[in-house]
């Protein structure tokens, strides 16, 4: 997975880190969500029946890409 690096002031770094902590997100996930969603809150996640098993599963919010093995790997890459 590629790594992006950018510069911020010390004060900006404190603010960004505090906002990520406040939302209980990693810094990477916080910045990713803010950048890719244009700062909008993600849509509501619903539980829907699986087309294969009939079990209830979580759906992606409207307009969001489906959750895949690769996206989960990306999310867990920052997990300590």
Quick rundown:
The protein has 80 residues and is mostly helical. The chain has helices spanning 10-22, 27-36, 69-76; strands at residues 47-49, 56-58.
Q: Could you characterize what this model shows?
A:
This protein has 80 residues and is mainly α. It has one domain. It is built from three helices and two strands. It has helices spanning 10-22, 27-36, 69-76, and strands at residues 47-49, 56-58. Strands 1-2 form a two-stranded antiparallel ribbon. A hairpin with a 6-residue loop joins β1 (47-49) and β2. The relative contact order is 0.13. The model has no long low-confidence stretch (mean pLDDT 84).
Given as residue ranges, the uncertain stretches (5+ residues, pLDDT < 50) are none
Secondary structure: helix percent: 25-40%
In spatial order, strands of the major sheet run 1-2
Largest sheet: 2 strands, antiparallel
What topology does this entry show?
Layout: H1 10-22, H2 27-36, E1 47-49, E2 56-58, H3 69-76
Antiparallel strand pairs: 1-2
Descriptive labels:
80 residues, mainly alpha, two-stranded antiparallel ribbon, 3 helices
